[in-house]
Specification:
Layout: H1 10-20, E1 27-32, E2 38-43, E3 46-51, E4 54-58, H2 70-78, E5 80-84, H3 91-96, H4 107-110, E6 115-116, E7 125-126, E8 131-142, E9 151-162, H5 175-178, E10 181-183, E11 189-191
Antiparallel strand pairs: 1-2, 1-5, 3-4, 4-9, 5-8, 6-7, 8-9, 10-11
Cofactor: FMN
Family: Belongs to the flavoredoxin family.
Pfam families: Flavin_Reduct
Length: 201
């Protein structure tokens, strides 16, 4: 199979990429609009790119009709967001928040999640999540135009939250306790339960 992005439907390019580039970590992003109304949505074009300063990057793609998603509009308006790392026990509510809701309706309510105040930014944290990264926007880089075009959101982490129960005996986050999930292609996800260790040379 060969795919030339220049001559292939963007949807087909997208399907190939999300099937090949796996597993992908998931940014579960809370934002607020200019009126302070919360929004919550998952994104799997996501990773951490620096520790000094701590920087995360994720990409809300445009909808298939070429319009911007609420998360991107909210970050453009407020320059703040909070990223949570979905864990195995939160798969179902995370998936619910991927639903497109009418303006004014809350994904927190739909997924029966509890918004709690953040310390350094306006968007709320998810009380049920054991993790939260409070972020301020550094830059948004549009990567294209039209359906499924990406928008690289670069944010500096202002505050890191995680529950002590995630720590192992060595004082570091234990992946066995974290139980984060990853995104594959289509409707598939991966659990981080089949783990192995490999010492670096």
């Amino acid at each position: 199979m060969r795919i030339d992005p220049k001559t292939t439907n963007p949807v087909d390019v997208y399907q190939a990429l999300v099937g090949l580039v796996t597993p992908r970590p998931i940014a579960w992003v809370s934002t607020v609009d200019a009126q302070g109304r919360p929004n919550l949505a998952p994104f799997s074009f996501f990773n951490v790119f620096s520790a000094n300063p701590p920087v995360v990057v994720f990409s809300p793609t445009l909808r298939r009709d070429g319009t911007k998603k609420g998360t991107l509009l909210n970050i453009e308006a407020t320059s703040e967001f909070v990223i949570h790392i979905p864990t195995n026990d939160l798969v179902e509510p995370m998936n619910l928040t991927a639903k497109e809701l009418p303006e004014g309706e809350s994904e927190f309510d739909l997924a029966k999640l509890t918004p709690i105040p953040s310390e350094k930014v306006k968007p709320p944290r998810i009380q049920e999540s054991p993790t939260a990264l409070e972020c301020k926007l550094q830059q948004i880089i549009p990567l294209g135009h039209g359906p499924i075009a990406g928008n690289l959101v670069i944010g500096e982490i202002l505050l890191i939250h995680f529950e002590d129960r995630l720590l192992g005996a060595d004082g570091k986050i234990d992946p066995h306790k974290m139980q984060s999930i990853g995104r594959l292609g289509g409707d598939y996800y991966a659990r981080t339960t089949d783990l192995f260790a490999l010492k670096r040379p």
